[in-house]
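Collaborator request, handled under Task 6.
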Amino acid sequence: MVSANKEMVVYCFDTLLAHYNSTEAPSPAFDQAQHPLFVTWKKVVNGGDPRLRGCIGTLEARSLINGLKDYALTSALRDRRFPPIQANELPLLECTVSLLTDYEAANHYLDWEIEKHGIIIEFSDPVYNTRRSATYLPEVAANEGWTKTEAIDSLIRKAGYNGPITDELRMQIQLTRYQSTLFTMHYSEYVSYVKERRGEAPILSAKSPNY
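Structure tokens returned to the collaborator:
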């Protein structure tokens, strides 16, 4: 099994920096493989807790090189919950790569463990008679301090359902649980890594667009 590692996060930073500089990112220093994956960007301000700035990925297996390149940019620039990350935010960012593993069908909506499992829910919207789905990575519920039910209810809202959340609705949820490996790195650690491995620090062009 492939695990998330430092080189994968470095490639995400390389990709975002290359976007701002209108250049190509250096070739990644990890082997090609197929995996479901997510890229998460957070912003650290004044030494406080990191705040989410973007998180998008795929529950289907993608090639790691193309997948990380695509989702590093998509999560940074096109997460509809947030404005696009600006080039001048780079020094405040931390990046996490998550590779998803061990998909299992759960017996009911509470059949999972906080911190251990990520969850995918699917259910039928009783108002619009459409199928809805959404996911949270394994660390989300613990980071938010949620109970299992609070996490489920938040995920129902994330899926786009705005009606009343009842026990009947929760009971009809089809839940898939999964696990993940992840690696997190702050921009300052990325700079140190690049200096050590490539002999010079990464440079943000003065002409970099702010988008």
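The cover message to the collaborator said: "The radius of gyration is 18 Å. DSSP finds six helices and six strands in the chain. Please let us know whether this matches your experimental observations."
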